[in-house]
Amino acid sequence: MPRSGTTWLGKIFDSHPDTLYRHEPDTWRPMDAIPLLASRADHDRHQACLREYLLSIPSMHADRVVAKQPIFSKSYASAFRVHLYKLGAGLSKVGGRFGHEWPVAFAPAPSAKARLVWKSIESLGRLGLLASCIPDARGVQIIRHPCGYVNSVLRGEAARRFTHGEAALDVGIFRMLSETEQARRRGLTLESLMGMHPSERLAWRWVLFNEKAAEDTVGEPSCLPLYYEELCSDPIGVTRRLFDHCHLDWSLQTERFLADSTSTSRSDYYSVFKDPRESAWRWKEQLAADDIDRVQAVAAQSSIGVPYLDGRQRWNR
Predict the structure, then answer these.
(1) Could you tell me which residues come within 8 angstroms of residue 2 by beta carbon, excluding any fewer than 6 positions away?
(2) Which residues pair with 19 in a beta bridge?
């Protein structure tokens, strides 16, 4: 889900010297042929298209895909090439401010040593299909407290940080969600969803997307569920577990990035340099009490929300 710590997690993986990171390529170049809420049963229909898309990701050099800061040293690129890459990313961002878009120059080329990292806020509902079609890949589904998600979305919309309309009014998304098995077994329809309070509707968006991804990958060893607050509570320990899951050795560069990104705070809405414990629970001071009650009442109806209602979780607060 967007606003769930995906950018920080993506940059944690990018900080490993053996990874080739691509930031939301499926937002920049959408996979229109594959539904946002795809079914594993459609494996045969979508596998060729999905694999073709996957092979195209390393060559995507658009600013929003390869210029997300910070930029890290890589084992498969010289220090001089990385320096040029940083300059190219800076120039591309300057051009973007004046309405010009061009590929980022000098982005390191893929190599046999590089492990592709695909960070997405579009393909959560495709996770089961991805696991089925790309069995040698490893997936991480990051889940943030629904109140944190709702609060961050509302803050971003109030500050006009997004190019799309209000998430709670996205009829197209809610129509698709209403047709999922997760909605049907609860008797949720488009009409009932759109008749709810906006914060309640966003909470159901959180439940239905996350629940579909979790149920589509249950028992799938290649996919690992991760609670954002767990990562915030123990960044190094959890990152070591994530790297083990993805067959990556520990990296001192990652260790330095974790220290830097958790010890300094920058005010930018999309910054990855923030006190993680403060970020995880800021919603308690910012989200209205009525909205908290509505969101938690919805989350309580899903197994995805249960850890947040369990006081025994050491990372709960």
Answers:
(1) 121, 153
(2) 115
Per-residue pLDDT, 269: 52
- The pTM of the full predicted model, rounded to 2 decimals, is 0.92
Look up residue 221 and give its DSSP letter.
T
Cα–Cα distance between 257 and 21 in angstroms, integer? 15
Average pLDDT along the chain, 317 residues, taken 10 residues at a time: 93 97 96 93 93 94 93 95 93 79 85 92 96 94 96 80 72 96 97 95 97 96 96 96 97 96 71 79 94 96 91 77
Region class of 57: left (phi > 0), else alpha (psi between -120 and 50), else beta:
alpha
Q: Are 115 and 246 in contact (CB under 8 A)?
A: yes
Alpha-carbon gap, residue 172 to 283, rounded angstroms: 27
- SS3 at position 180: coil
* Cα–Cα distance, 66 to 96 (Å, whole number): 14
Distance CA 157, CA 167 (A): 8
CATH architecture designation of domain 6-309 = 3-Layer(aba) Sandwich (3.40)
Structure tokens, 203: 């909470």
For the chain, give every domain's residue range: 6-309
